[in-house]
Amino acid sequence: KRLGFDEVIYGKNKSTNQLIDIINLYKNKNLNFFCTGLHPEKINELEKVFPDLYFSRESGTARNFAYPETKISNSVGVITAGTSDAQVAYEAIETLRVLGIPFEKYIDIGVAGIHRFLHYLDDLRNHSVLIVIAGMEGALPSVVGGIFAQPIIAVPTSVGYGTALSGFTPLFAMLTSCANGITVVNIDNGFGAAMAAFRILQQIENKND
Amino acid sequence: KRLGFDEVIYGKNKSTNQLIDIINLYKNKNLNFFCTGLHPEKINELEKVFPDLYFSRESGTARNFAYPETKISNSVGVITAGTSDAQVAYEAIETLRVLGIPFEKYIDIGVAGIHRFLHYLDDLRNHSVLIVIAGMEGALPSVVGGIFAQPIIAVPTSVGYGTALSGFTPLFAMLTSCANGITVVNIDNGFGAAMAAFRILQQIENKND
Amino acid sequence: KRLGFDEVIYGKNKSTNQLIDIINLYKNKNLNFFCTGLHPEKINELEKVFPDLYFSRESGTARNFAYPETKISNSVGVITAGTSDAQVAYEAIETLRVLGIPFEKYIDIGVAGIHRFLHYLDDLRNHSVLIVIAGMEGALPSVVGGIFAQPIIAVPTSVGYGTALSGFTPLFAMLTSCANGITVVNIDNGFGAAMAAFRILQQIENKND
Amino acid sequence: KRLGFDEVIYGKNKSTNQLIDIINLYKNKNLNFFCTGLHPEKINELEKVFPDLYFSRESGTARNFAYPETKISNSVGVITAGTSDAQVAYEAIETLRVLGIPFEKYIDIGVAGIHRFLHYLDDLRNHSVLIVIAGMEGALPSVVGGIFAQPIIAVPTSVGYGTALSGFTPLFAMLTSCANGITVVNIDNGFGAAMAAFRILQQIENKND
Amino acid sequence: KRLGFDEVIYGKNKSTNQLIDIINLYKNKNLNFFCTGLHPEKINELEKVFPDLYFSRESGTARNFAYPETKISNSVGVITAGTSDAQVAYEAIETLRVLGIPFEKYIDIGVAGIHRFLHYLDDLRNHSVLIVIAGMEGALPSVVGGIFAQPIIAVPTSVGYGTALSGFTPLFAMLTSCANGITVVNIDNGFGAAMAAFRILQQIENKND
Amino acid sequence: KRLGFDEVIYGKNKSTNQLIDIINLYKNKNLNFFCTGLHPEKINELEKVFPDLYFSRESGTARNFAYPETKISNSVGVITAGTSDAQVAYEAIETLRVLGIPFEKYIDIGVAGIHRFLHYLDDLRNHSVLIVIAGMEGALPSVVGGIFAQPIIAVPTSVGYGTALSGFTPLFAMLTSCANGITVVNIDNGFGAAMAAFRILQQIENKND
Amino acid sequence: KRLGFDEVIYGKNKSTNQLIDIINLYKNKNLNFFCTGLHPEKINELEKVFPDLYFSRESGTARNFAYPETKISNSVGVITAGTSDAQVAYEAIETLRVLGIPFEKYIDIGVAGIHRFLHYLDDLRNHSVLIVIAGMEGALPSVVGGIFAQPIIAVPTSVGYGTALSGFTPLFAMLTSCANGITVVNIDNGFGAAMAAFRILQQIENKND
Amino acid sequence: KRLGFDEVIYGKNKSTNQLIDIINLYKNKNLNFFCTGLHPEKINELEKVFPDLYFSRESGTARNFAYPETKISNSVGVITAGTSDAQVAYEAIETLRVLGIPFEKYIDIGVAGIHRFLHYLDDLRNHSVLIVIAGMEGALPSVVGGIFAQPIIAVPTSVGYGTALSGFTPLFAMLTSCANGITVVNIDNGFGAAMAAFRILQQIENKND
Ligand SMILES: Nc1ncnc2c1ncn2[C@@H]1O[C@H](COP(=O)(O)O)[C@@H](O)[C@H]1O
Ligand SMILES: Nc1ncnc2c1ncn2[C@@H]1O[C@H](COP(=O)(O)O)[C@@H](O)[C@H]1O
Ligand SMILES: Nc1ncnc2c1ncn2[C@@H]1O[C@H](COP(=O)(O)O)[C@@H](O)[C@H]1O
Ligand SMILES: Nc1ncnc2c1ncn2[C@@H]1O[C@H](COP(=O)(O)O)[C@@H](O)[C@H]1O
Ligand SMILES: [Mg+2]
Ligand SMILES: [Mg+2]
Ligand SMILES: [Mg+2]
Ligand SMILES: [Mg+2]
Ligand SMILES: [Mg+2]
Ligand SMILES: [Mg+2]
Ligand SMILES: [Mg+2]
Ligand SMILES: [Mg+2]
Description:
Eight copies of one chain form a homooctamer.
Chain A: E1 7-10, H1 16-28, E2 33-36, H2 40-49, E3 54-56, E4 61-63, E5 76-80, H3 86-98, E6 103-106, H4 114-118, H5 121-124, E7 129-134, H6 140-147, E8 152-156, H7 168-175, E9 183-184, H8 190-208
Parallel strand pairs in A: 1-2, 5-6, 5-7, 7-8, 8-9
Antiparallel strand pairs in A: 2-4, 3-4
The complex binds adenosine monophosphate (4 copies) and magnesium ion (8 copies).
């Protein structure tokens, strides 16, 4: 339970039947669970079987418990380069919500129009952790990391085509960023970015007590 | 200066002559600098030109200032899977030292003999951040991340041959780890891992003040 | 017939019509055959044409003969890291069954919660061969191989996304494992792992006679 | 002769002996030639044989003719992200020189400290073509392309390590840049970038006549 | 507005619902927009919602404004190697049209029958910029670049199979072309090629004024 | 000690100084060790420091103990496709020797002259395990596996050039072999193949007792 | 017409509508054409529009002319390793037929059961060219090339999974074959193999006249 | 002996000592041998030991027999795109010589200056087989194959940098060439191309007798 949930289910590689079995198992054991990676059609099928679960289509998730009260006092800024990156942001945001972490979102402020990003400089400075989500060339974390001193968790997305390499180009770009001390999670892994933020925020809270 | 140094020089792609020019420039400007990625032979050459610099062969670094006093109260655990990974650990450790961050090192406690790692469970729990360094299959961060709740910064190394892919296999393994919320930096990037730890520790300290 | 079957058909790259032709051919020749790699929909179509065959949906296989009696006295342990890896385990298990090999299965005991695995240490020690199945970072065989002295056949699976590289990351990780003497088969190749176990078990039995 | 030279020799894959033969051939034919891709040591050897050639070590080039007078009225801005990218810039600059094209250079103004780049906004606006050279994550052309309307020729460099992939990461990043209408040349190909600028500038001049 | 449009939407990674939201937003703001990367089925759905938009199926684009008058006096030649490359050409052509740029198209004149290309030598010489589109081995730009002195923008396409590598083979071939000064855009990126031509043509016009 | 050695040192990624430290450590602790991956030049240097060690240049190994008596009654056949693959065979053979396992070697009997292999059919049938070593296209294990029923451990080597891909082509070929139940180890990993054979042979012996 | 057809159409990357336009064009010009790469569903649609064309589903081809009489006196042997490779063989065979070349086919005689191949040694010796088709590890051409002296055209197929890499593993294996003088065509390219055979056979016939 | 030599030795992956052993072995057996892949320095060492062998530095080969008389009446044209490709041509030519095959060479006539190639059209038409050697984008075989009807053996070379991918780009380009019936050998494999020509020429001669 240490890392925020009784159980987390990764839904992408599981059939609907496998998911139904696992969900029933956890419900029978009275365990709280959070499930990610659910394609809209899987959600449609699961919703018929489990009308009492909480589903979120924009983030592709399901859970069997209400949002907890905010348990953490410091906040996370969730930034995306483009509008196409938004669905990864929603997976991160939904995870933050079920962990009781406050957040603010900043969608579509990538480097092709750098003024959009510069407009939010003051807002962004207030967050304890910045999650920066970008596809294509993945340049935004470099700019953010050059300006801000907070922990930065970069999330490459599979947005783009050709040389975007399904997200490997922004992944590699973020890992070899000329801005120092940026860390990176797997392609499209909004869940993992939120969990990494949770690890940091817990540490901040603990040391404050 | 926000991120700990006046200037950082990445020495790997620069010739000795380029390095001499840059170092002279910074010395003339009275700037403090930290230089990484120095092959032992480059150090030999630079030492002749700049006998007053501080060189560290095991970490491949140089600097023109003494270690600062410890400025940070929380500590970092630096863990490696094998002995061959040690030189990446030394780059991280040297960076922590020049940033005034306390640390402890745990070398050669990888998963092939899981008891070695289990032996340090209590020690490791005391650190605010864990830097976990591994080459070959890069499995150690998964085990660490399944047991500990702190922020974990995984560093893949180029140790291994054949399918180790010069570090891309542990890199990819760490990014797709089944342990949640692990973040990753570039292959052999001990410096970046320490900088990421610095970003987190600063945040902890700031909120404590 | 030496390797356990009259004929093995690999069903994945064949159309249903090709499969019908081949099956009729073998039936007319009175040959026993085992067919793997059958997608559920292909099974549905084949079942209409051949109601007398034995189909197994969870393993994607078909055969025209009943399970043989157990011919081998030593057993195989079939281990998976996650629940998503189970279908590869079932292909291995079905192959073991048609070869008359006793087995035990251990599903979802991967490294992210190492206690799950440690719980079965005594059971696992009893098997003559261990088949260890894992996707994502593929770390489980390293831990198993560090603890047990038996032959270990590692099977990477295509479970995961992004840097899991459709199974190439666990494949490469298993091949470069820091545990010694682990051998590996193709991605998702439960059939091949069981056949490799069969080769070993036959050798044990032969030498015992 | 249409593209500026009688002959261009690519020196990288040729042995010193091959180069000597080719140079003698062209000298005997009274042809002007420009040779690129010369490692410093090859230059040392060639210099002994041909003391009358013009060698440039920082760009790795040789020629048998003096710089022509400036023949083009519009200029090129040559920008690099880091100091390590400078040697690619010098290959471009040397090529511009032998083509009689005016230029200005801007070294080490990459995105990790975006203020450095912003400082030159007015200067950069005056050039007819911008050559933007960057290694590592290759983010600078995206920022430049989002601000300026001129033709932008992006040159990825092999500077970096690990996920920089010897220049493939900045190459792919530049090709999938979210800034529109950026074009790209081969990794480290300063020569090709200058030639592309030449094609554009010639077109401008022609239409002006 | 500098680069020709109020807004450009990349339609490929966006769901129809996301597209409807964005289009409504821009319509409400009275902004002109151009949308690319629309699969025929998405166009069918959008056409029902927005009967007043201009759709082009052969180029996969949509816009909410009539073609502007031709604003540029110099023209672009759009060349393809095969008939299968035509749809990328149409994306380039549609972009040129909405930018008010005159053009001529030359479809299916690739190197396998070099006479087809040689037939158009005189026509091609008249254009200020040549966009050369080719899949498979991508050899056409090398031949064009060896004959013509104009700016050449090469566009690799995903036409082909096996070693065509979904366009990476022509991409790499174009970047390493033995013809000097060719520049390249992303695979299938007809839009980007037209934008690059626009940058060049604007520069020619400006200098003419 | 379970897997045959007190300690195994992998020498490739360690400097001579690191090796000297480790060897001294183990000698002081009175531990037996076996070291692999030693380049001839490293052996030259180590021999000067440790004249009492046993070095083997053809296998690139060192040890501080005499060969044990043969402890295992069943034997291993070590087969190579070409003469260039011999050095990988020697690493396997040296490992078998220090483990006390009897073996026979068959060098240069690859598929390009299939008669060479057919000549040894009867000899090969007597071994309990076959280690099959091949570079280039790696076809030999498929032929061996189609004829023999024993456990087969295939070792790809880095012999070859171009599309041999430093051993990845034979590696992939062996993993996707049409012969059933072949298992594979890392490229050039003669040590690992011998260890895998040891795991199997131990199992045979144990069950015999 | 030199290479056997008025026109060849590659159907894979073209839509049904594009194909209808091209076919009508060629019919109106009274040109003979041969079309390859037609998915069964495209054939169904084209058959409705052009009931007078000759379609072949097993080879995925169409033509508007009857088979010519055999024009060539020497024959081609078409060999496949497995039954799954048969459809590539049919593309080669259909091409040979429309070129008037005699042939013999040998399906499913791959190396996993080397006796199947050895059975046909005498038959195979009679052909002037051997086309050898194999997926998975692609070992068959090495064995054929070691025994026979004729020209051998190897065709890798996309049959297999995981490390078969959609045909790149047999492609690379065939190119690095230890049998000398084997040549290779693109993955699944039965058409190209037949055309290469045609080039050779024409040369034989010409020199005989 | 069927394929022209008693023995062929591939020298690249063998140490000088290994080579000396093998050469002595063959000399003692009175076998004729041909050795390829010899680096100039290896030749220097071997020449001291075997002053009676015939060495060729430009092709990197050695043999212990004089050139045979020309045994074949038809000739081979050996074409290269650039001067840097010449050393691969020399390996092919030396192999043709020891096989007694007449040939003509055409160096540096690649597509960047298509007139160079067009100049030799009539000469090239006379050869029975064309070996076409090219690095970088590898476009020359496509142009040759579109014009000539003879068998064409394309040889990609490792000449180039960056996206030339050490020869994989011309390799892939040649395999996916839009000219029909071109066949390909491994990167830099001049030897293999000559052997493939030998297979074809033998067939022509045989049928003529
Ligand atoms: N979106 C996600 N990305 C990465 N890992 C996840 C995600 N969702 C769940 N997981 C992890 O996947 C594992 C569950 O795997 P399984 O046993 O196959 O369901 C747990 O470690 C989860 O925490
Ligand atoms: N699941 C499987 N994975 C790998 N190979 C298989 C599998 N099932 C069958 N095979 C092998 O595929 C080959 C049959 O190929 P084919 O002639 O194309 O049917 C035989 O060598 C089988 O033993
Ligand atoms: N630095 C460079 N990068 C790319 N191509 C170059 C370079 N320098 C020369 N070239 C081209 O290389 C070709 C000469 O190749 P070669 O005949 O092998 O010398 C010509 O097309 C040159 O224009
Ligand atoms: N340049 C070359 N390229 C490819 N294969 C070669 C070459 N030279 C020799 N070979 C082949 O390499 C094999 C000899 O391998 P080995 O037994 O390791 O010496 C034989 O099949 C030779 O015909
Ligand atoms: Mg946007
Ligand atoms: Mg160790
Ligand atoms: Mg699980
Ligand atoms: Mg800098
Ligand atoms: Mg065409
Ligand atoms: Mg040999
Ligand atoms: Mg078969
Ligand atoms: Mg040239």
